[in-house]
Amino acid sequence: MCGIIGITSNKPVSSAIINSLKKLEYRGYDSAGIATLTKGFINEIKSEGRVDNLEKSLINIKMEGTIGIGHVRWATHGIPNTVNAHPHSSETVSVVHNGIIENSTLLKKHLINKGHKFKSQTDTEVIVHLITEYLKKDSLKDSIIKMLKQLHGSFALGIIFKDQPDLIVGARRGSPLAVGYGSNENYLGSDSYSLKSMTNKISYLNDGEFCVVKKNQVEFFDENGTRVNKKVLELSSKEIEEQPITLKNCIKEYIDNINNEINIYNFPWKINEISSVTLIGCGTAYNSCLIAKYWFEALTSLDVTTDVASEFRYRKNRFKKNNLYIFVSQSGETADTYAALDLCNKNDMKTACIVNVIESSIARDSNFVLPIHCGPEIGVASTKAFLGQMLVLYILILKLSFLRKDLDKNSYIQKTKNLKELPKLVEKTLLTESQIQSISKTFADAKGSMFLGRGFSYPIALEGALKLKELSYTHAEGYPAGEMKHGPLALIEDGMPVIVLAPKDLYHKKIISNMQEVIARGAKVLLITNKSTDEVISENIWEKIEVEKASDDLLPFLLTIPLQKLAYYTALEKGYDIDKPRNLAKSVTVE
Ligand code: AGP
How far apart are CA 303 and CA 297, in angstroms? Predict the structure, then answer.
């Protein structure tokens, strides 16, 4: 798997191409290369190994071209060296390619008979000579169409032409290819990841399509040259990327930086007036209640229950004076959660809420409000608010546990200190993105999927399944892994993608054996664990993602990140609207 990039602009493109190649390096680092059109000539620079080497070799070379292509290589045909590195160029054409041309040997023989001289051992170079050959007689478009028809195998191509200094041709069959839209510049790239530092507007090419990218216009064609219209998708994983900042802002609000003290001001009750807690919410907010239940039980001696608001409001509840009812809601307007609060208020209960919108109805009608400080959340699928809800719940639990002397001073200070490292750990964990993007393709084709967790990871499995459902419309279930044998195991069939959350915590060994149970039934397991020194038993797994090392309490935050991204990229792969998934609303104000 290689990575390709192309940029046409009104300003020099070489440094932007190098930056994108660095993002694409997860696709291959046997060699890297760039070609730009400078003063009517193709200027090609290639180097072995990492993009850094290429960058070094460019230091003394002024590449002024405002149009160019770039490539990172994972060698399939021809040894990894500079000659076989891409781009491959003739005097008039330069090509970067991701994929394999299966009939390259045959085409090469034919072209050599026509007098073409080959420099490399690659399959890709036949494309250079094939198009050069056609351009002798045919128009650019006809040459492209004829060339594509000759090629067998898979490809994503980026091509620049000496005689067409204002355009890049892209073509796709099998390997992914996207176009990005900028102002006075446009881009071509193997995936949105390589483009999103330059734009949040992209279109994907389908198999058999090609495109002509100019700095102010992009045209798409099918294999016969008929124009096709393309949907422009808006990349908006902004809220997922924002999480290190929103967590940092929230921690600043609650944790005194000097003495690592948690400041929860004007808590209206004496600590001994509360002997039990009920956490209530809907959807993602309910999942944060569930993870809090595990933290409450691990860190305090309080009795704790959780409830889905739409059930709580109609049940015959036993209201207890010393129970604290905590309502979790991003919008603070969710009808079921508000009605549950109203019911508690009517029974004169202690009510607190954890909200993002502090002027909301739930905030206004609760006795005590804990804001999550993560800024407006636009995307219907809740992401940064989920981590914000978890964070404030954890901070509240640490404080209550210390005040109740369930936690000694040293552990309290240490856990508060650990918390301040969380934004950095989330930032590092976001770097697993590129691996997830390639994994998401399998989920895009999947009929259904399962998310398995135990202990702290079980609520995160529920949240991961919810995100995949609401963003990619793929049927997905989160399950306590120990429950599989009691029925759901029957759902497992060959190739079914199953996510197993197996951090190195006290449940690790148990969940690894549950993982082997689903593998034995043909499941394709994506194992998500955390970095650590001890080896993970990962026989027969399909893929493994490692999040950063962290204390057991904080691992749920990190395990959530790859699941958010998986849902995001699966939806993108399927071409769905990320911010406004079908049939849903950001705040459900009806019951
Ligand atoms: C989450 O992605 C969904 N948008 C939905 O489940 C949401 O969490 C639920 O509707 C609760 O919303 P709230 O947090 O605003 O109360």
Answer: 7
In angstroms, rounded to a whole number, what is the distance separating the alpha carbons of residues 174 and 58? 32
119 assigned to active site: no
How many angstroms separate the CA atoms of 547 and 565, rounded? Answer: 13
Share of the chain above pLDDT 70, in %: 98
Task: Give the three-class secondary structure for 351.
Answer: strand
Q: Give the C-alpha separation, 32 to 133, whole Å.
A: 26
99, β-bridge pairs: 155
Ligand 1 residue neighbourhood (C-beta within 6 Å): 282-285, 329-331, 334, 337, 380-382, 470, 587-588
Measured between alpha carbons, how far is residue 196 from residues 234, 279, 583 in Å?
10, 38, 27
CA pair distance 188, 96, nearest whole angstrom: 11
Ligand 1 atom with the shortest distance to the CA of 470: 2
- Kindly state the tokens that stand for 176: 């992914």
3-state DSSP assignment of residue 119: coil
How much distance in Å is there from the Cα of 362 to the middle of ligand 1?
14
Structure tokens at 445: 């084709």
In the reported structure, the alpha carbon of residue 500 is separated from the centroid of ligand 1 by a whole-number distance in angstroms of 24
Rounded distance between C-alpha atoms, residue 203 and residue 52, angstroms: 29
- Strands 475-480 and 448-453, by their bridges, are parallel
Whether the Cβ atoms of residue 44 and residue 94 lie closer than 8 Å to each other: yes
Write the CB contacts of 91 (distance below 8 Å, at least 6 apart in sequence).
Answer: 42, 162
Give me the pLDDT at residue 296, please.
98
**What gap in Å lies between CA 367 and CA 271, rounded to an integer?**
15
Which token pair is 460?
Answer: 């995160």
Contacts (Cβ under 8 Å, ≥6 apart) of 403: 271
pTM greater than the 0.85 cutoff: no
> Vertex 177, ends 378 and 32: CA angle to 5°?
110
Segment holding 7, helix H or strand E: strand 3-8
- Residue 206 has, within 13 A of its CA and on its CB side, a CA count of 11
Q: What is the pLDDT of residues 562-590, one digit of tens each?
A: 999 999 989 888 888 888 899 888 888 88
Residue 70: pLDDT over 90: yes
